[in-house]
Design brief:
Shape: elongated
Oligomer: single chain
Largest sheet: 2 strands, antiparallel
Number of domains: 3
Length: about 200
């Protein structure tokens, strides 16, 4: 067993005929495995063995992909995946800090007071801007009176209102607007979202 663990694929291939080394395969493997190996086609243009990491498209190992494979092996991580047009966020014509904020909003990891309380932080649940109601992401960005005033003077009020009427989470509202606003208005929208959040943290 130790011998086969140290062997490379090339040791199972006849270097002259570029075909499987029938005797070597029979020596190392059982009959069923031998049959499956012999059914695997070989390409004559292969000159030498190469290490290929299947978890990345480019074939190169990465810690990120290894972590992902490990997580998939130990349990169900489907709850980590969220629907949405994620690639559209990174295609936005906006500064990286704005795109990063939009991503965090849609992932539900904005440190609003409801999330801070969930994490055991001792703070009030009231909105930091209006101090009038429970603060979560959808309130800060869309329902807070100060946010409403911003949207009213932004020429985006109608689009935002429609998105709020048809979607019940902050991520769905943002994705709806990303997919439906024309480019100049979309750039304006994400910049205003960033400005509202920055103002909330001042």
């Amino acid at each position: 067993m130790e011998v086969i663990q140290q062997a490379k694929l090339g040791s199972l291939i006849n270097p002259y005929s570029r075909s499987w080394n029938y005797n070597a395969i029979h020596y190392y493997f059982d009959h069923g495995t031998v049959q499956r190996i012999l059914m695997t086609p070989l390409f004559n243009q292969v000159e030498e063995d190469q290490l290929i990491w299947k978890a990345e498209r480019n074939g190169h190992y990465s810690v990120r992909s290894a972590y992902r494979l490990c997580m998939e092996d130990i349990g169900d991580i489907s709850y980590l995946y969220r629907s949405g047009c994620w690639s559209d966020i990174w295609k936005l014509k906006a500064p990286p800090k704005v795109k990063n904020l939009i991503w965090r909003i849609c992932r539900g990891c904005l440190p609003t007071r409801d999330r801070l309380l969930d994490r055991g932080v001792n703070c009030t649940s009231m909105c930091a801007m209006c101090e009038g109601t429970y603060e979560d992401a959808i309130h800060v960005l869309f329902y807070c009176p100060k946010a409403i005033n911003v949207w009213q003077i932004s020429q985006l009020q109608n689009d935002v209102t429609v998105a709020m009427r048809n979607n019940n989470t902050v991520a769905k509202i943002v994705f709806h607007l990303i997919q439906n606003l024309p480019q100049p208005m979309l750039e304006k929208f994400v910049t205003i979202v960033w400005s509202i959040w920055k103002t909330r943290n001042m």
